[in-house]
Amino acid sequence: MYWKIAAVLGLSAAAVTLVEYFLYLQRLKLKEVEKLRALERVIFFDDTLQNCREHLTTENSCGDSCSFKKLSYLIARIDDCLSTLDLCMFLMTCHNLSSALARAVERGVKVRMLYDHDMAGNTHNYGCQIRWLRRHGVEVRTRPYAHHMHHKFVVLDGRLAITGSANWTLQAFCGNWENVVVTADPRLVHQFADTFQELWDMFTEALPESA
């Protein structure tokens, strides 16, 4: 009889331990979600930032509204990336962001990029960073098509997405009226991730390192 009671008590203790462990995991998950949601932002750029173009070169900020200060937030998200980074971009000429992608590759992050075919082949696109990125280990795909690959979004570690109106260009960040949205909403992030993978499977033409 006593052994039966002991067995029941042992099972009860094990059940309590499992419940406590489950609750512990839930708390960890909630903390991780809260940490990610705290990264969410809407960032605006406008024509008053034209004088900040030189700050992207010197990497010195003139204040909270400075283009480089705003851009630094996006760079920090790339620098925080641990495993995968998937990027769709119509046009890219901003070396600050290109350098952040190259650093990610050096850390062992798998960086994949989809790029518009016309923009990739346009030698008159001053400052186009695509072949520089190829030389630094970014896998780039494109596809000849009658229409443009006009997306501007990036998915980091499958947990964070950055999107908006802006191409990653100096003009976008230092002259245009643009917006950039950083979201950790899993419903949105998963849709961006799924769309990237669908396009990745469609865009089978690998961009060479040099023309």
Strand content: 15-25%
Shape: globular
The spatial strand order of the largest sheet comes to 1-7-6-5-2-3-4-8
Give the low-pLDDT segments: none
Q: Count the helices. How many?
A: 8
CATH architecture descriptor name of the largest domain: 2-Layer Sandwich
Major pleated sheet: 8 strands, mixed
Rounded radius of gyration (Å): 23 Å
Number of strands: 8
Judged by helices, strands and strand pairing, the structural class is: alpha+beta
Mean pLDDT: 84
The CATH topology of the largest domain:
Endonuclease, Chain A
Following the backbone from N to C, one meets helices and strands in this order, namely: HEHHEHEHHEEEHEHE
Per CATH, the superfamily of the largest domain is Endonuclease Chain A
Number of domains: 2
Estimate the helix proportion, in percent.
Answer: 40-55%
Textual characterization of the structure:
The chain is an alpha+beta fold and 211 residues long. The protein folds into 2 domains: 1-38; 40-206, Endonuclease, Chain A (2-Layer Sandwich). Helix content is 47%, strand content 18%. It is built from 8 helices and 8 strands; from the N terminus they run αβααβαβααβββαβαβ. The protein has an 8-stranded mixed beta sheet, sandwiched between helices. Helix 3 packs parallel to helix 4 (95-106). It is globular. The termini are far apart.
